[in-house]
Amino acid sequence: MLIKLFVPLALALTSFAQLAQVITHCTQPKTVALTFDDGPWVYLYDVSKALVAANATGTFFFNGNNYECIYDAEEIKRVKYAYDHGHQIASHTWAHLDLSTLTWDQIHDEMWRVEQALQRIAGVVPAFMRPPYGNYNDLVLQASYIRGQKVVIWDFDSEDSLGASVQTSLALYDSIISQRPNTILPLNHETIETTAHQVLPSVIQKLKAAGYRLVTLAECVGMQPYQSVGAPGTPDVSLNSTNVLART
Fold it and tell me: Domain of life of the organism in this record (predicted)?
């Protein structure tokens, strides 16, 4: 059972004032960790199929209640599908709030809710968290450390969430690939149809042609993806979108 861990702020600042590691790039040579934020969403299946067809894996940073509640039946299926097909699943927090604007207890609540959901649905407790908007402060890093989380940013942005066209995203990928960096840690969003259906299939081929291995985030930094792995719990069907919102 995943226990809700809240630590009083005063105690954290005196006894646990260590900061979580912030990951901004891969460390394993010639790897690319394609990451996808803001799901689980309807395009997850097509993203996964494109990766699997190329013998590749990706990393999905899931929210608990962004586009839909993660406890909704279709969302549960998407989480399980990603995990069962060898992709890494990780935390993007519960409601996609800017963690740098929240209190200590609010930060923990945003993190704990989605950790609990992933444990109930897939049986895993994630070891990585990507803060929404890439925003964090020392309070967020202290909370992440206590919760056993690494904080993940990126070193390349496809700009799909900023409204970039397919041509623009592809041109950005072409530019970074032409520079031949040792590794790439790209930011993409599974909630954007053109990313799933037009950008990703092309990018996968370009990256493989350039000699990169397309791996999970954990693989690209040589770490374990989860703090624990076990049997899934029973998703609490009472935690539908309406009831979850009523509790926040």
Answer: Eukaryota
Do the Cβ atoms of 111 and 91 come closer than 8 Å?
yes
Asked if residue 99 belongs to a domain, the reply is: yes
Domain that holds residue 114: 18-247
CATH of residue 158: 3.20.20.370
Q: What is the DSSP letter of 69?
A: B
The conformational region for residue 192 under phi > 0 = left, psi -120 to 50 = alpha, else beta, is beta
pLDDT tens digits, one per residue of 54-79: 999 999 999 999 999 999 999 999 99
Residue 74 lies in a domain: yes
Domain count along the chain: 1
pTM across the whole model: 0.91
37 given a catalytic annotation: yes
CA-wise closest residue to 57 among 38, 76, 34: 34
Question: Has 189 been annotated as catalytic?
Answer: yes
Q: Are 159 and 167 in contact (CB under 8 A)?
A: no
Within-domain flag for 188? yes
Q: Which of 98, 189, 197, 236 is catalytic?
A: 189
Catalytic, out of 25, 37, 105, 138? 37
